[in-house]
Design a protein that fits this description.
Helices cover 48% and strands 13% of the residues. With 431 residues, it is an alpha+beta fold.
Amino acid sequence: MRSQIGRTSILAIALLLVLGIVSATAGAVELTVTTHWGAGTIFEGLKAAVERFEELNPGVDVTLLAANPNKLSVMVAGGSPPDAHVGVNARLIYSFAKEGMLAPLDSFIERDADLPVDRVIPSAWQIGTIDGVIYGMPLHAVGATFWWNKEHFGTAGLDPETPPTLADFDDFTRRLTRNHPNGSLEQLGMAVYEGFNAGAVPLDQWSRSRGWDNVWDAGRNQYSFIHPAVVETIEWFIRYRQEYPPEFIRSSFGINSFAQWFAQGKMSMVAGSPLTAGEVANAGTNLVLGVSHMPSISGSNMAPNETWQGSIPVGAGNPDLAYQLLRFLSLDPEGSYLFHSISGHVPAYLDSLAWDRMRESSDPYDQVRAIAAEILSQSPSVGPQGPFDYRIPYLVNALNTVYETGNVRAALEEQQNLVNLAVRDWLAKVE
């Protein structure tokens, strides 16, 4: 594998010299790269990978800048786009491409005879492809996986190797929940309504596990929230909130984070990701974990892949060098490993050293993370997502309204109308 890294790096340097992008005698070539991640472990990994790219390509000087979607839009519209942007999700890449902010990558890929396109998680390419045009280089896969505490299962008389189905999920939760003599929670099966983005992410995940697969109708250019799976999931959330109120859970455990409830051994099950294994390892609780697809009905998109992408904005000053950097981060064994090794994300590139480290590790948390990674590698694409993050604020607002009024369909209809009004305004600007 090390010789493969050497060959890849030599080829990259040779290609840059042939294209005239860098010169052994010329001054430094400046490359400006904006990123969705301005801090945290994934940003540290990105910095490490960029520094290695600079080492392999003397004369290249990369500047990393944090930029949210609004800042990136302003930079492009103002005529001062970065050379590349790292960190475009499935929703943003659709809107950016439709708004003419991103340069097609097809010509770069066609000229790159050594690009290992068949060694990428298949669904990852689909997310960066809009109307048959490639706008994104796949970076890392993101999707829901289901985790459980095997010791809790055994103590409750459940098979530690078998996760619940949707049909018996409520029974599992009750059997896994225990109270202290004073009435506070000692252990909770699961709070299904708790999760990222004020509960919108678990609503999205559990609705998909029940068959909600037409969030965005590309033919009609509209979102659809009123679906039996969404209604059923919200009604399920309401029952869980009544039986296991969020304030009661937090006061019992003295911890605000649902992820830490699981990592600290307070909660028995969680809808997580490959990062869950790292969270438990960092907690030092020595939990024995199981991982599988999300419990779901037959045929549903259980853990859709939402691979993040790297793109080149329209008007970039050095698109050829930007492509080589994205290639290094995305489809180079060493580059993709450095980028993702600190954060623990799963590279979309199947020959990344990160995959070898997970598979060969004797660490039980690396081993279980490898199982979660395999699940994501076999998962279908999340599918078209439309121009907005429909979860924020629309699903969040729907949930908040439901929890106040109890009227599920009315709340969903109100937010569906609002997001589709916004879509019509957006279409008027881009068409």
